[in-house]
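Sanity check. The docking grid for coenzyme A depends on where the pocket ends up, so I'm generating a full predicted complex first rather than guessing from homology. Inputs follow.
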Amino acid sequence: MRHTTKDDKIRVLILGAGGQGRVVLDILLQARKYDIVGFLDNNSDIHGRRVDGFLVHGGIDDLEKLTAELDIDGVIIAIGDNGARRGLARQVEQTGLELINAVHPSATLAYNATVGRNVVIAAGAVVCANCQIGDSVILNTGCIIDHQTMIGEGSHICPGVRIAGRVKVEPGVFIGIGATIIPKVTLGCEAIVGAGAVVLEDVLPMATVVGVPAQPIKLAGASEDIAAMLLPART
Ligand SMILES: CC(C)(COP(=O)(O)OP(=O)(O)OC[C@H]1O[C@@H](n2cnc3c(N)ncnc32)[C@H](O)[C@@H]1OP(=O)(O)O)[C@@H](O)C(=O)NCCC(=O)NCCS
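Predicted complex below; grid placement will be based on this.
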């Protein structure tokens, strides 16, 4: 059962008290819908200390114990690493706690955009018509996601990224600051797009692409001979 304060606000813990935790805290405070109970973080050096005025109550493993003790209704996972964020979100789902979203009041969302759970949408981000934003996605400061684009679970779209219409971003993709993606491109699972890249064609799963136009430089997990077959020689 949801416990609410006298102001009828949902009591929330933020999992992760690093840089992303601070960003999420700011967004939740600006949104004025939540009663922030504090943080959990696996860095034991900061247990019992305050981050931006809010207490770090313990480690993330203490979540179940502290849920009852602190009368928590919901959590949000503020961890930059895509895989860690997705994995933890799935664990939290099993506990029955609500995974909430942090949407900055200055973000703009089309009326028919769909947004999953545990999603962070930072200041000035724009999500246009018919976009689908998956669970545990971060849409960072000032990024633009144009019409009919799909952002897969656990992807991170960094500040100032511009994604055109009908792009498919598969799960776990990282798009570095200021990159541009032209229409109808597919970015494969866990691909990485370097800062400032301009992506003109599909990107293989697990590939890293950089530059203008973007070219692949790495293929995670591939042996050297497979990578040599799949990646063009760099000039
Ligand atoms: C793409 C990226 C992830 C690659 O990191 P990496 O795997 O450690 O790669 P390296 O630093 O070893 O670089 C490999 C090569 O790519 C080049 N390169 C790396 N990033 C590049 C970029 N964004 N644009 C152009 N070239 C780039 C390097 O100069 C290097 O070239 P060389 O082999 O000729 O020397 C990283 O450079 C990047 O752009 N990260 C974005 C970070 C970001 O936006 N953070 C915002 C957080 S909110």
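Relevant for the grid: The mean pLDDT is 94.
Also worth noting: The chain has two domains: 10-100, 103-211.
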